[in-house]
Write a structure and sequence with these properties.
It contains three helices and no strands. By secondary structure, it is mostly helical.
Length: 70
């Protein structure tokens, strides 16, 4: 499983790559890390990355908002 610091470093790398490449990146990480539900309700604790259904729903909501679909 990734530590919070390792995951944050990966997110930073993706953000930097997206910015340098001129592509959009939707910030799902912030929604997960600040969710009142807590990460344990959103992602598999085995790896700390892959979302449960609740996490997928949250991710979908974030993407919809980012593209003005809600």
């Amino acid at each position: 499983a990734l530590t919070n610091a390792e995951h944050a470093a990966r997110v930073s790398a993706v953000r930097a790559y997206a910015a340098a490449s001129g592509i959009a990146a939707v910030d799902i990480y912030s929604a997960f890390s600040s969710s009142a539900l807590g990460l344990a309700a959103l992602v598999d604790p085995g790896d700390g990355v892959h979302p449960y259904a609740t996490g997928l729903t949250l991710a979908g909501d974030v993407v919809k908002r980012a593209y003005g679909l809600t």
